[in-house]
Amino acid sequence: MRWMREAVIGATLFVLAGCAPGGGQERANEILAEARAQLAPDRRTVVFDIRPDVRGRFLTLYGEVHDPELKERLMRFIRETGEFEPVDSLRTLPDPALGTKTIGIVSLSVANLRQKPSHPAELGTQALLGTPVRILKKERGWLYVQTPDGYLCWTDDTVAEMTPEEYEVWLGQQRLIVTTEFAFVRAAASPSSLPVSDVVAGCILGLKGRVGSSYEVLYPDGRTGYLDQNLAEPLRPWLMRAKATPQSVVATAERFMGIPYLWGGTSAKGMDCSGFTKTVYFLNGIQLPRDAGQQERVGDLVETDDLLTTVQPGDLLFFGFRPNEKRGERVTHVGISLGGARFIHASGDVHINSLNPDDADYSEHRHTTFLRVKRIIGAKQENGLQMLASIPYYRGDEY
């Protein structure tokens, strides 16, 4: 019976090594793929960098996630399969090596945030002066950060790193928001003095006081300067008044006519299509997700006819590829309706087109790739919209 004993021992070792018929490691990979699809489907907003190692029924998880709740949900997901007992060797961000400085405030007019910690890497998005970011880790002088809309990217641009206590001090002071498309903060309260930096619409600065017709402003990194009062407003009163209407959204969009297209851009210096829609709605008190495909998932669906007669100014028009036997639907572009078939969007630059073949600015390409319309103004809150006044950083301590 020796051969039977050897067969049993061999099979046991095979299982303990995680290599049972069907593949323990392969099955672990499948379970992690299922977990990612359910718990972390969007790599742009969730850190789910995990490597499995199988030893019998024990599945050790290496790598990192971006918050403790996600890790707990992952452990529960694995246990509920009944196939493995998870062993936690994951690192939860922020990296403990950061110490207490896990909050950052962007300190230059427009910070470039890239997909990898390298200047040649793709520009994922931008963050304006005064934007708070969650610092997750550092690598070779680069910061891995998460913006208020959840976007994850790397930057080596100027970010003032703060402890929670320092952040509360910054948050508790008076602040102002830049309302003009482009301007300069100057070293003295004189239009002829040297610039401290440029600013763009949506930048947020500390407000120290007033000198003549200028605001005295404070940067997150401690610099000071002066900005003409006609170019900005105190943040809290502005936030209380900011309300998206069809008229206000269209008027804001038209202010950026001719601004050049920039992949990853979200400012008056250059915008991509979703950066344009995001900026316009931000300046009207609403935070949209970053990318077109993400924006398509918020708001209320608008039923349309061939002439788009039900489409109102301010609605978002989405374009892309319809699903077929090889792939699912892909949203690739977004614009803001001017009402009916005409819309304004960033493509080459910010300009107006129409989906009506009878119009002089008709775009056949956009007509053939048109997918649907979503309504943001007046949409149900449960459909993914986030008002700036509901975000603690913007509303401050008085709300």
What does this structure look like?
The chain is an alpha+beta fold and 399 residues long. It has helices at 2-16, 24-39, 68-81, 164-172, 235-241, 246-254, 273-282, 292-295, 364-369, 392-395; strands at 48-55, 58-65, 85-92, 103-106, 110-114, 123-128, 132-139, 142-146, 152-155, 159-162, 175-178, 182-186, 195-200, 204-211, 214-218, 224-228, 232-234, 266-267, 270-271, 286-287, 300-302, 316-321, 330-339, 342-347, 349-354, 370-375, 386-387. It folds into four domains: 2-92, Alpha-Beta Plaits; 97-170, SH3 type barrels (Roll), CATH 2.30.30; 173-241, SH3 type barrels, CATH 2.30.30; 246-388, endopeptidase domain like (from Nostoc punctiforme) (endopeptidase fold (from Nostoc punctiforme)). Strands 21-26-22-23-24-25 form a six-stranded antiparallel β-sheet. Helix 2 packs across helix 3 (68-81). The radius of gyration is 25 Å and the shape is globular.
Q: Profile the largest sheet.
A: 6 strands, antiparallel
- Biggest sheet, strands in spatial order? 21-26-22-23-24-25
How far is it from the N-terminal to the C-terminal residue, by CA?
A: 80 Å
For the record, the CATH architecture of the largest domain stands as Alpha-Beta Complex
Q: The CATH topology of the largest domain is what?
A: endopeptidase fold (from Nostoc punctiforme)
Report Rg. 25 Å
Q: Structural class, judged by helices and strands?
A: alpha+beta
Shape, please? globular
Average pLDDT over all residues: 91
Number of domains: 4
